[in-house]
Amino acid sequence: MSKLFTRAILSIGLLMLMSMSVFAQTASLTGRITDSEGQAVLGATVQVQGTQAATASGPEGAYSFQNIAVGNQTITVTAMGYKTASKAIAIKAGENVLDIVIENTASDLDEIVVIGYGVARKKQISGSVASVGPKDFNKGVVSSPDQLLAGKVAGLTVNRSGGDPTAGATVQLRGPSSLTASSSPLYVIDGVVGANIELVAPDDIVSMDVMKDASSTAIYGSRAANGVIFVTTKRGKAGTPVLSYSGYAATERIANQVNVLSAAEHAAFVEEHGLAVSPSEAGHTTDWQEAITRTGFSHNHNLSMTGGSEGTRYNASINYFSNQGIVKRNDLERIVARVGLDQNAFDDRLKLALNLANSLNRSNHVDYGIFNGAARFVPTSPIMSDDPTYAPYGGYFQVPGRTGYMNPVAMLNQRDENRNNNTLLASLKADLTLYKGLTWTNVLSYQQNQYDRKYYMHRTDFDSNALGQGFAQRTNLKNIDQILESYLNYNLTKDQHAFDAMVGYSYQKTKNNDGVIARSTGFLSDDLGANNLNLGTLPNGYNPFQDYPYILESLLISYYGRVGYTFADKYILSAAVRRDGSSKFGANNRWATFGSVSGAWRISEEAFMKDQTIFSDLKLKAGYGVSGNQNIDPYRQIIIFGPRDGQFYYNGEWVNAYGVNQNENPDLKWESTSMFNAGIDFELLKGRFSGSIEYYNKETKDLLYEYDVPSPPYQYNRLLANGASMTNKGVEVVLNAVVYRNENFSYNTSVNFARNINKVGSLASNIENIGVSQRFEGGIGLEGWTGQTASIVLPGHALGTFYVANYIGYDEATQKTIYQKPNGELVTQDQISAPDDYMVMGQALPKFTYGWNNNFQFKNWDFNFFLRGMYGNQIFNATRADLSRLQQANVTNISKDAVEEGIFETPLIASSRFLEDGSFLRLDNATLGYTFKTGNLRHLKNARVYLTAQNLFTITNYSGVDPEVGLGGLAPGIDNRNYYPKTRSFSMGVNFTF
C-alpha cells in the first residue's frame, strides 16, 4: 500500500511540474484587424493555425488570446468580403502584439455566385443576378425561407397577404407571365433542382442567388421562365469544430382590425334610424373579432455543428420552429434536420458530398369564413345561449334561415383541420477530376413528400352538410421526385484568356398524388373526428371517393450545354442551350430547344480607365435568351374519362354515368418566354458606392389557356391549348452606399426600385377558330351580387385590370347612387347591366415597388431597419362593400366608414366606389443588437443578443385591414372578405458560436 501511495505522490508531483512548465511557456497575444484603408474589421475570425484556439475581432477590430503557447505561431484571419490573411509571429513569454491588415476583395467582385451547374465570380457574370446573404435577410418571425427575400431583390415580389403562419407566399419575378401555369420561380437547393424550399431552415442558409433574366436561366430550359433561385446551405470546413446556436422568442398581435361598429355604436345607429333588431340578437356586448383572436407566441431554435479535416468534413443541424397564429386554434410547428458529409479521395481527385434533409410540419388550419362572420355578426348578439333552441348547435347562438350568416366562434371551434407534411430529401454528389481543369459531376437526388390532411365538421356544426350527422374527410398523398444529373465542366486559363465549357444530361421522374381522398358522414360521436371514417353511416347513393385523386406521373429528359470566354478580365461572352423532352405535352410537341447568349464589357479594365480614381468597376452587359414553363399537371394532353352528372338504367338497376371529362390535344406544348436584358453595373471610390441599372423586355408566347369549345365536334366543352401571349417590360435600379465609416461607427444603406409594365397580348389559340376576345375574372359572391366580377383579362391591358361600373356619386335627394355608362349616360344602380355597362377603371399590379435597407454599427451595437412598399396599384375592397348595407344594420354589422359615408342604398353591383389606392410604405422590420467581447473566453467565439420588431407601421390610404392583398392568379388585388389580419411582432433572440 505504501508503494502505491508513494508512486501516486510522485505522479502527482510530476504532473504538477509538467503543468507549471506548460504554463511557464505560455503567453498572451493581442492586436487589431484592419482593412487596406485602415478601418477596423468587426467579426473577423482569428485563429492560431494548427490549434483549436480561435476568436472573433470586436467592434474596434481588437482581438486577444490568453495562454497561447510560446514559440513560432501562424495567425490566420478570415472575414466575409476580405481575402484570407496569414502572418507568422514568434511568441515570447508575457504580452505579445500583432496587428494584421486584410485586403478587401474588390467590393465583393470576387465573390462566388452559384449559377446553373457551376459557380462563377461575380465580376464574370454577364446576366442579371442578385445575391442576398444572411446579413441582408429579413429579420423576425419567418415561417418560410422565401420571406427572407421580401423587398430585398429588385423585381422580385414576395407577397404574403395576412399573418396566417400556415399560408405560403406568392412569389413573382419581373411580373406575372402565365394565365394557367404556376408563376413561381424554380428553386435549386445545393444543386438539387426543384427541391422543396421548406427543407431549409433560415439559419442554415449561406446565400440565395436570384437569376432574373433568360440568359441566366435558359440552362434550366422548360422550368425556368419564372426565374431561378439558388439556395446554398452551410457545409463543413476543415479546422476546429464550430458549434452554433441561434434562437428567438416572439409575441405577435393583430396589427389592424376591420373597422366595424361596437355593440354600443350599433345599438345607437339602429335606434337612430328606426330599425328593429330581433330580441334574440339584442342586449349583449360581443367583440367578435376579439373573440376569435389572441396574442400569439412563437419561438425558434437552431443548433448546428460544422468541422472536419481537409479530407473529411461534416455539417449537421436541427431546427425547431413553433409559430402560434393570432387566430385561436391556428398554428404551425416544424422540425428541420440536415446532415452533410464531404469526403475527398484519390489525392483529392474525387470529392463526394452526401446530404440528408428532413422536414416535419404539423399545422392546424382555420376556415377563413370566420373573418367574414366576425365582421358581419351583430355585436349585440351572444356567443352562446342556454336556450334549448340552440342545443343542436352545441349551445352556440345561430340564426337559422339567414344566408351566409354563421357564428364565427362556433365555426372556429366546431371545425377541425390539421395537416402533417413530411418531406425527405437525399442527395449524393460526386465530382471527379478527370484531367486538369476537367471535372465530371454526377448528382443523384430522391425527394419524397408525405401529405396527410384530416378535416372534421362536428355534428353540431351549423352547416347543412354536417348538422346532426358530422362530416369527415381524410386526404393521404405521397409525391416522389427522382433526378439524375450528369455533366462535365472544363476550365482553361492561359495568359489573358479564360475558357469554360459544360455539357450535361438530366433525367427526372416524378410521381404525385399517390394516395386516397375519402369522406364520410353520419357519425354518432365527434370524439374520433376524421381518424376513423368507417364509423360513419352513409346514406344510399353517397360516394365516399368523389374526389379520388389521379396519380400523376411525368418524365423529363434533357441535354444541355454552356460555353464561356473571358479575355483580360474585361470582355465576357457566354452561351447556353438546352433541349428538353417532357411527357406532359402532346405527341407532336414533346421536345423543345431553349438557348441564350450574353456578353459583358468591363470598361474599368480598359487602359484608358487605369489612371482614373472614380470607378473601381464599370461593366456594361446585355443578353437574350428563351426559357419555358411546364408547370401544369400531367395528362392534360390526352382524353380522360370520368364520372358525369346523372345515372342511367342498365340491366335492371341505375348506374352512374361516365363520359369524357377532358379533350385530347396532341399539339399541347410548354409556354415559351424570351427576354432581352441590358444593364450597367458600377462601383465607385473603391466600393464606397455601387449599384446596377437594368432594362428588360420579357415576352411570353404559347400561353396555356383553357378555352370554351363547341360540343360537338369536341366531346367536352373545355380544351387546354396554347396561343395567348403576354409581355412584361421594366427597369430595375439598385444603389448601395457606405455613407460613413470610422473605427467606432459605420452606416451602410441600400435602395432597390423596380418598375414593371405588364400587358396581355392575344387570347387566340393556335387552333383554328378557337379563342376569346376577353374573359371576366374575380367573382365577388356577395349577397345579392349574382354573377358579379371585378376583373377582366383583356388584350392590351395588364393582368389584374379592374372592370367595374363607373361610380359618380350619391344623390341625397333621391337617395340613390349615380353611375356613368361607357356612352356617357348617367344612370342609377338598377339601370346598370353587368358587365355590359362596365369599364376599365384601374389595375391591381403596382406601378413600382421599392425597398430601403439601413445598417448602423456603433462599437458593439448594431441597428438595422428596413422599409419597403409599392405604389400605383388599386384594390377592390369587397369587404367594405359587404359592410356598407346601412339599411340592413338590423341583421348585420356595418363599418364605421359606411356610416360616415351615409349612403343608405344597398350596393348590388361592382363599381369604382369600392376601388381604393393600395399604395403603401411599411416599416417591415427593425433590429437592435449587441455583440459581446469574447476574446478572453476560451470556448465562446461569438455572442450576440438582439431585439426585433416587425410591421411597426404602415402608411397607406387603404381603408381595409391591410393593403398587401394577394397578387397571384388572374384576378389579383381583390379583398374579398377572406383576409387573415396582418400581425405585428416583437422578438428577442440570441446567437452563440462555440
UniProtKB/TrEMBL annotation:
Residues 122-228 form the TonB-dependent receptor plug domain. Residues 394-952 form the TonB-dependent receptor-like beta-barrel domain. It is a multi-pass membrane protein. Pfam families: CarbopepD_reg_2 (PF13715), Plug (PF07715), TonB_dep_Rec_b-barrel (PF00593). Keywords: Cell outer membrane, Membrane, Signal, TonB box, Transmembrane, Transmembrane beta strand, Transport. It is found in: Cell outer membrane. Belongs to the TonB-dependent receptor family. This is SusC/RagA family TonB-linked outer membrane protein. It comes from Sphingobacterium tenebrionis.
